[in-house]
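Example record

The entry below shows one chain as it appears in the dataset: sequence first, then structure tokens.
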Amino acid sequence: MVGKANISDLLQSKLPMPIETDRAKITVEDLASRIRSEMVPLGTVFSYFLVMPIAEEDLKQYLEDPIAALPQAICAALPKVGILLVPYLEKANGKNGDMICSSDPN
């Protein structure tokens, strides 16, 4: 399905060497630049990408409905906004940017 991918598959398809899929990590910036053309549009301003599958009703509740509720004037003033829905984020503590993880980093 468009807009859904497994983080481990994405990493392995972009890296020359295999990696351990249970500990796959990538920075938010790296993933965003790799999947930019695969983002699913939600109108003219917003788009999203799912790293892990999400139920359609959750997608509607967390993305579609809130974005649809924004006043048109606000949307017109915003730049393009890309939303990445990922399983976990690991704070970088000032190093290399936050990391997207496929399992709980704690």
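Notes for this example: Residues 11-22 have pLDDT under 50 and may be disordered. The chain has one domain: 7-101.
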